[in-house]
Specification:
Blueprint lengths: L2 H6 L21 E10 L7 E8 L2 E6 L1 H8 L4 E4 L4 E4 L1 E2 L7 H8 L1 E2 L11 H13 L7 E6 L12 H7 L5 E5 L4 E4 L1 H6 L12 E3 L4 E3 L1 H8 L10 H14 L2 E6 L6 H10 L5 E4 L8 H6 L14 E3 L2 E4 L35 H13 L4 E5 L2 H17 L8 E4 L5 H9 L3 E4 L3 H4 L1 H8 L2 H4 L5 H6 L5 E2 L10 H10 L16 H7 L2 H6 L17 E4 L16 E6 L2 E5 L1
Length: about 575
Amino acid sequence: MDRRNFIKCASAAVISLSLPKMAFANSSKVTVFYGGPILTMNPTNDIVEAIVVEKDKIIGVGTKADMFKLAGDYANKVDLQGKTLTPGLIDGHGHYPNSGVYDLYYVNLNVPPLGYVACIADLQERLREKAKVTPKGQLIYGTNYNDLAMKEQRHPTKAELDDVSTEHPIFIKHVSGHLAVANSKALEIAKITPDTTAATGQINFETGLLAGTDPQRRFWDSDMPTIKIDYEEAIAFAGNTYASNGVTTANNGGSPTIDEFFLSCSDNGKLPIRVVVWPYAQVNDDITKRYKDKRSGAILDKNGKVILGAAKLFADGSPQGYTAYFSKPYYKQMSGKPNDYRGFSYFKSPEVLMERVKSLHDNGWQIATHTNGDQAIEDMINAYHKVLKDNPRDDHRHILNHCQFCRPDHVSRIADDNLIPSYFVTHTYFWGDIHRNYVAGPEMAAHISPCQSALKQGIRFALHNDTPVTPISPLMDVYSAVNRITSSGFILGEDQRIGVMDALRAVTINTARMYFMEDSIGSLEVGKKADLAVLSDNPLTMKPEDLINLKVLSTFVDGELVYQA
């Protein structure tokens, strides 16, 4: 299967594994898995012959003979038939269940192979189709348009959205999530005029382009007609897609925080996987009051499926959206930008940034900050370093989320302060060519997601997909970290490639540690939760370039089968 088909079918496993379903229906609460390589991800990366699960826990790991003896004569026996068993895969950052929301309620404006919009005319046609079935006056919401990957290589304009409809408010969001374009009707309802300014970010009334979170937030704080979303339906829908990709623990990265729906879905059985909630904390300390004495790793529900994570901040925006914050001007400037344009900080001032980090740190929070440009990363390393110096805290596990344009000098400083990068490594595939040719230039682009440099410094980093920005697929993270091949076939930063086992650890035990959950998930060890994934092949023996064809065949959460191809 080629890369295009892999991405188009990212949620569909196509190779069948004939697990004996009757085994899960008998009276025994003990199951032994055997018959294929079992990658434990324990501290020594042991590969074993069998494991035993009792109810929701792993009770034995070792040889087939020993595990059969431990399991007893009446245990369920699952023959892997040569397939590979790993811990359940863990997404280091995303916006679960937004992929379900997007699929069920919004208009997909992505470019091929993720969608069908190759040019602005295609984008308009997709929106017109939605307008035909949407009552006048109701909002039309489009997602994931990609300006640099469309034929025109520019953002759609307010006028082009007005050509679709002036009777519907239309709001379309960039693939990065950090920019949007609105038509005249939407701007009118949001009370945005030529004189409107943003506290942070930028508003271009003439084109309808909104850059940053503050301009977009004006829409949701206005009288904009909303799309009624059944979040329980979206959680179940997205959860099944995640499970089909081996994910047993997802992340809700503050966009939005919908704890009440996660809790209700945990109660009624509509939440098939775990989710770590990162509450948004850019403005004030309401989250400290909301969660009281709870902190990262705290279980919020009775079933152990909803977990509190870090407080979420944004230091900058998106490199492909030209809102990431760099120390030097963009390699090739966006039309209409001055030659010295280098993006911008999402904080009003360095003092505001420091106040936010200090307040959260002093209140005991783990902090996860969205950082893409090298200046944003620099600012956050400095802020983390200062609060840790002023108020030392063991095992803080503060996170640099995305951490894309991480300079060589940053890596050692990240190691020195025991910070955790969660790399959006599939940037190498999806936008590597754009970063190399437009955003940052060849030298800086070759060092995005510097996994090998991080390994050499002993950094235990995580990997993620930022779904719905890209389809959920930790195996695509593994492929990208190992190969660093762009969508055009160019190798971007060959010296930053890593081995398969290190990449697998970054989507299992390393991410569990980032979530303060390494004692319960992330590896196959006695006493841990029986969160498991069965893969179509052994990734350790495949050719690196063939990892893109690796599929998930079955997924288990708490020992229960939640997905089977």
